[in-house]
Every structure is written in C-alpha cells, then in structure tokens.
Amino acid sequence: MTRSPRALLAATALAGLLATAPALAITPVPAAPTAEAVVETYADIAHAMYADSLAAARDLRGAVDALLENPSDETLAAAREAWRAARVPYQQTEGLRFGNAVVDDWEGKVNAWPLDEGLIDYVASDSYGEESDENPLYTANVVANETIRVGRETIDASTIDAALLQALHEADGVEANVSTGYHAIEFLLWGQDLNGTDAGAGARPASDFALGEGCTSANCERRRDYLVAATDLLVSDLEEMVAAWEDGGAARADIAGKGAEGGLATILTGLGSLSYGELAGERMKLGLLLHDPEEEHDCFSDNTHNSHYYNQVGMQALYGGRYERTDGSIVEGPGLADYAQAQAPEAAQAVSAAMEEAHARLAVMKQRADDGIEAYDQMLALGNTEGNAVLQAGVEGLVSQARALETLVADLGLTITVEGSDSLDDPTLVQ
C-alpha cells in the first residue's frame, strides 16, 4: 500500500524523536536484603544509640560539675534538664535487651528500677517508712553513714567512690538496692516526689549540694561525692557498651555468631519482650492495676511519659533500620522491615501498622504531659477515668504490636521466647 505524503512525514518525524530522545530508565526492583545485612544494620544502629547516650551522659557530667561549682536554682535546673536529655537516646536502646545477653547482663547497672531510695540519702519517714521486711538496707543512707552493714559484713563507706557504689548495687541480693545508674542520679537531683498522684515532682533544693553554712539536710559534701561517683560510673558503663557494639566488640560478635536465623530471632525477641512484658506489662499495666505512682519509671522527675515514648521510637528505629541521631544525622541500612516485607508481606504490613498505632497512642500520653494537663503519675490515679484511659490505650497498642510481631515470627519460620508479665497474663496475681 502506498503511504500518503502526510503519513510519510509523520513517520519520519517520529523516527527522529526516537533517535534523539534519551533512553527510558528502567528502575530495577531492589533485591530483598539478606538476614546478615539486616543484622549488620541493627548493630550499626545499636552502636549509634549507645554513642549518643554516652555523649549525653558526658554532657550531664559537665552540668553536674557546674552545679557543684555554684549550687543554685539555675545550675540545678540545668543539671536536671541534662538528665532528661540523657534519657532520650538511652531509652531508645531498650529494644536491644532480652535477646542480647551482653546488653541484658549489663543493663541493670545503668537503668535498674524501682529503687529503695533510703539506701542512698535521707527520705521522709512519714511517707517512706523506717524499715522493710524485704530489705535490711531500706534506710541505710550511704550519704549520712560512713559504715554500712550488709548481712554479716561491715562495709567501709567513709569514702564515697565508684567502688563503694558498685559494692552496694543490689547488695544483700535485693534488686531494689539500686546504688548506680540513671535513677540513682535522678533521685539525687530531684529528691523524693512526695506529691502522690497530685501535681509536682521531687523538689530537692540546690542548697543540698552547698558547702559550709549554706548546706541543707546535712552531709552535703558526701552527697556531692555520691553524685560525682554515680555520674562518672554512668559514663564509664556507657563507654563499655559503645565498645561492645564496635567492630570486633562483644555484643556485635555475639549476634553475628548466631547466624542468620539466630540474629533475626534476637532482634524480634528484644522487640517483642519490650513491647509486651516489659513496657506494656511491668512499666504501664502494673501501675494502672495498683494506681500507684511508685510504679512509674522516672518517678522522681515526672519524666516517665518521655521514657515510655522513646522506648517505642527506638523499637521503630530497630525494626525499620533507620535511626535519627541526636545531631540530626541518620544511620540507616537494610532493616528487618525490608526483610519481612520481602518474606512475609502481609505480616510485615501488620507489624508496621501496629507500630504506627502504638506510637500514636503513646504520643497522646506524651503530649498530655508536655502540655501540662497532667503528669504520668496523675494519669495513674484511682478515679482518673480519662488519664487511666490514655494509659490503657497505650498498653493495648503495645500488646497489639507484640501480637503482630509474634505472627511475623511464625511466618518467618523462627522461634523466640517473649517476656511475659503477671499484669497482663494473670492480673489476679498482682497485689
């Protein structure tokens, strides 16, 4: 068939366009990440989280120096703010526990709670009491006493230093004898919160750290020594964990040595256990069942809403393979979310949705406290229907997250053991 001149012209023009047009880019579908790559990203994020925690602890140490050089309302407020800031990166690390023995064996030195604060310093006996059947060191008061009786042994406490604090940590086999870590420092900076479920946190005066005639509550020099020793220990303990996640470090080597399936199981064990037994159960539901402000995690500072919120932020970072550092830089790589999406897409989507929902519910709790509506301990109060509901919504979101993770574990053909909690599994056992 003979083409018309118009058709020939169109064909020629089209041929010219095709000859000069750039080749269309074909984006290849990204290959599913290997389990080994996922574990490597996880270890890189762990290292960055602990490095940020260490940097913040060093900032806290500087703020403590400023407080002790010139005890005032301003320097005490700055030290407290540095403590709060130090909690932000550290709380994001807690999804690294439970599956990583190196972390779980170490964690009690820096974040053990609850604590019997009478071991450390003076307390209000009318609310705290004067003795405990479970703890002979309930009111040992290291700051005030130069000898401490632990069982049949008498410990020389004339010098308050790191060695003394380490010797007294969980002394007599009592877990509530917490002498080191964030919460010991928190108590020293704030003092007891004597407000129950009413508004207000601890109100220790700056003069508790003054020297000479300005000293209040006595033993200010020893209290200063305790604060320095506890902060120095926090820094050195975090240095240990940063090193553990460096190339060749014990924690990184341990998870790499578990193989592909073992590494993935470790990641999921930490996320599932923190979601369910630890955060939803022991840290949130238990306090709701008892309506007890003593069951809040950062009980002296009224910072619990932030601690719980950043636990969730950290779990999302570990699952997604993307962590935003304190300085705004990003550490990211192939994450468990990517691996799960390739291997078990339906379960992976359910986990992502559950994590977003849990995050949103905990954000409501955080915003309620940040806006000054009420602190976490007030939300726990008996008869506070609205506050209780906010916390219960967070519990339910975390439980749903744990259930979604369990389904993913099964779909990936893995086996893990998740920490339980009487508060969730059998509330009748809670007293």
Structure description:
This protein is mainly α and 431 residues long. The chain is built from 16 helices and four strands. The strands form two sheets. A two-stranded antiparallel sheet has the order 1-2. A hairpin with a 2-residue loop joins strand 1 (147-150) and strand 2 (153-156). The longest helix has 35 residues, at 35-69. Residues 1-24 have low confidence and may be disordered.
Rg over C-alpha atoms, rounded to the nearest angstrom:
27 Å
Helix-strand category: mainly alpha
Q: Flag low-confidence runs.
A: 1-24
Helix content: 55-70%
* Largest pleated sheet: 2 strands, antiparallel
Please give the alpha-carbon distance between the first and last residues.
95 Å
CATH class category label: Mainly Alpha
Summary keywords:
globular, 431 residues, mainly alpha, A middle domain of Talin 1, two-stranded antiparallel sheet, disordered N terminus, 3% strand
